Amino acid sequence: MAAAATPAGHDSPRGHPGPRGPETPGGTSLAGRIAIVTGAGQGLGRAEALALAAAGASVVVNDLEGNGLDSVAAAIRAADGRAAIVAGDIGAESTAQSLVDTALAEFGRLDILVNNAGVLRDRMIFSMSPEEWDLVLRTHLRGHFLTSRAATAYWREQSKQAGEEVYARVVNTSSEAFLLGSPGQPNYSAAKAGIAALTVVTARSCARYGVRANAICPRGRTAMTADLMGPAPESGPDPMDPEYVAPLVTYLSSPAAAAINGEVFVVHGGVAAVMAPPAIRATFRADEHGSPDGMWTLDAIASALAGFETGPSGAGFASEDTMTLATETIGFRR
């Protein structure tokens, strides 16, 4: 159930602008906007929360208790920003609803949702436990769903009351792991594939209310990925620093991104790439392979696929296009 909203035309409980928000027709400023960032205590989520605050947003930050929430909130406030804290498991429905409730109670409305919280439990598919599978799916995919459900329910109600679109942005965190079918990460890759699909569904089903939903596949040197990334360069910028992902998240959260919806970006260092939608590689028709009535038979499908082979990657649906981007940014060996 959506959180109760401040009635249109009234001030919020603390005197901030009401649910429709400030009039900002374009640009990248988030002045007066209200954002939620999950997994904000450290790493990418912290960088995102600080960047949104620097652009003018008030931020409700979430992470597990003791995971750096006090530090990131203090940093936002020290820079004259506004922050509220909601500690808790993002896979719990109560935490997701509390995030929206807190945004409304503390700041008067909600404009932006950045879903970032995640966890890893890497293991090969044949040795992964059901518990390792469930934890990763719960944190990533269920966590994204719960917050998105609560936020979009609020925005839908606000749009219906106003009779027009409202300002609403969702930035989800997917991963190249789902594009590549990352070995040793069946749970993580599956969750991230689900997040990409959830993003497109949210974009298509909620655009009429003003919601713009996009996903990023970031590369960032965080506590969760430290063992995968290797050491940072000894000099110069670190292309894996999460601070280089945060500008895209801020832009997608801004009025300037009103025309961007349902896209999946790969981003790191100085590179941002927009993924193309899945394409059909080949089409086979039964009536061209001996089927008497144009429908598939075993003999017809065997004839159709007799010359079809998977590409050199060894996994036909895996997309390795993004791997070439690694050579286009500082810090990667060619």
Task: Give a verbal description of the structure.
The chain has 334 residues and is an alpha/beta fold. The chain folds into two domains: 241 residues, Rossmann fold (3-Layer(aba) Sandwich); 43 residues, no CATH class. The chain is built from nine helices and eight strands. The chain has an eight-stranded mixed β-sheet with strand order 3-2-1-4-5-6-7-8, with helices on both faces. Helix 1 packs across helix 8 and helix 4 runs parallel beside helix 6. The chain is globular and about 70 Å long.
Counted beta strands? 8
The major sheet is characterized as: 8 strands, mixed
Q: Using the coordinates above, name the CATH class of the largest domain.
A: Alpha Beta
CATH superfamily of the largest domain: NAD(P)-binding Rossmann-like Domain
Approximate helicity band: 25-40%
Distance separating the two termini: 51 Å
How large, in whole angstroms, is the Cα Rg? 22 Å
Structurally, the number of domains stands at 2
Cross-sheet strand order for the largest sheet: 3-2-1-4-5-6-7-8
Low-pLDDT windows of residues: 1-21, 330-334
* Strand content bin: 5-15%
List keywords for this structure.
single chain; 334 residues; alpha/beta; Rossmann fold; 2 domains; 8-stranded mixed sheet; 9 helices; 8 strands; globular; disordered C terminus
